[in-house]
Every structure is written in C-alpha cells, then in structure tokens.
Amino acid sequence: MSMPSLVWKKIFWLFKKSILYFFSYLIINKNDVILSLFPKTGSTWIRFFLFNYLNETESLEIKAGIDQMNAVMPEFGHKSMLNQWRFKSSPKLIKTHRPFRSIFSKNKIILVIRDPRDILVSFYHYALAKKEFNFSGTLKDIIHHNEWGLEYFFEQFKSWEKYAGLIVKYEDLKADPKKSFKEILSYMDIPVDEEALINAIHRSDFNAMKKAQETSEEFKNKFQGNFTFARSGKSNQWVEYFDEEDINFWNVCKQKYEFSFY
Questions:
Q1: Which pLDDT score, from 0 to 100, does residue 213 have?
Q2: pTM for the full model?
Q3: Which of 48, 57, 77, 159 is the most exposed place for a label (fewest CB within 10 A)?
Q4: Is the separation of the CB atoms in 40 and 119 below 8 Å?
C-alpha cells in the first residue's frame, strides 16, 4: 500500500473513531456501570462471564459466542455502543481501556488490575499477532511504548483509582472466581443466583474461552496465526521475560506513581 493510501486510511480511521466517541458521549447514562481496565487484564473473560450469567438468568438463549458477546456488551467509542442493551436485570456494562474522563464521574466504576509486568508480556504477544498493529518489535519496545507501555499503565490506573467503587485484582479472579464474580454482581445490583453463577463460571473458564475464540469470525479477521486472548493467563510470567534493566525501570515507575498493589 502506498504512503498516500496509508495516510488516507489513517485519516478515515480517526474520523470514524471521532464519530463513535461523539455518539458514545450522547448515549451513556448515569445508571450505566463502567468497566475500566488496561488491555490484557481480563475484560473478555469478565464480560463473557456476565454474558453467560445474564443469558441464563433471563432465559434469552443468545448464542454463547465471542462475537455475540461483543455485539451486546458495549465498548465506549465502539460501534457496539449503538446496539440495544438486551438484559433487563442488569445495568448496562460499558468497557473502556481509556483514561478517566469527567463524563464517567456519575457512574459506578469497576476497576480491574493485574500485575503490570504480566500485562505487558501478554500485550507483547497480542501486539505481535494483531494485524492492525503491524508490530514486529521486542518486549522492551512495549515496556517503553508511549501508548502501550508501563508508564501509560500507571497514568491510566491513577486516573481511575480514586473514582472506582470496586477494585478487582485479576489474580483474585483466577484464585477464587466465585467470590470475585459474586462481588461484581453485587456491586452492579444484579441478583445472585448460585446455580447460574457456577454455570457461568464453567462456561467462561479458560478452555471454554479458547473454544469460543476459535469459532469467532471477528477474531480470525483481526489476528494472525493461532493467537487467542486466553493465551495462558499465568501469574508471574514476567519473571521469564524481564531482565535487570526492565526490573529497574519497573521499580522506578512503581515509586514514581506510588503504586503498592504489586
């Protein structure tokens, strides 16, 4: 593709995103719940759980797939914001990977965090596989990236921290999904059905997620090879990737942003 074509493609993309953000600002309601989290922190897992849970408790019989979930579980600034919210027993859950904005100040906010070092390892594999990114760099490039890197994580986290009514650790979700998902349901004022809770956890586990992604047409169009969102989900995987320089940079950032969760 020629350089002018790439420029026009970028301009069109920016125009399209601007329109979608404009409509998102118009559509959002104070009763909506915001799910804020950095990429690779469990957004697909959490939304797939809620999708399966509400699908059962409301007897909607929507096909349990990733594409179907993305269509009814909106993301701020995405075309999914234009779709009808299907679930009567739950407030609308809106995902965002962006920093806090004042328009969210009246909403309930769930902030999900994960060890940032593990996030960046996962995001590195994600960036290599995503066609749109056309990324072929190293983990260090990700760690120091202006829009994807460690400092950006801290800036985004700090923008949300004081507004979050519920902070959920990804590692706690992994260790005790029943407890953590029940906390999310309760915070959203969704009635807790124990049987449906267990069923939704089972239908959203690691193997179920991988299987669902394998049948996702949207997923196949966006990523190369055999990449899946549910790549490993391991904690402390950063130990196998970070060298001394990376660890030192982590410690500097952690102190600079007064981050004490990990």
A1: 84
A2: 0.91
A3: 159
A4: yes
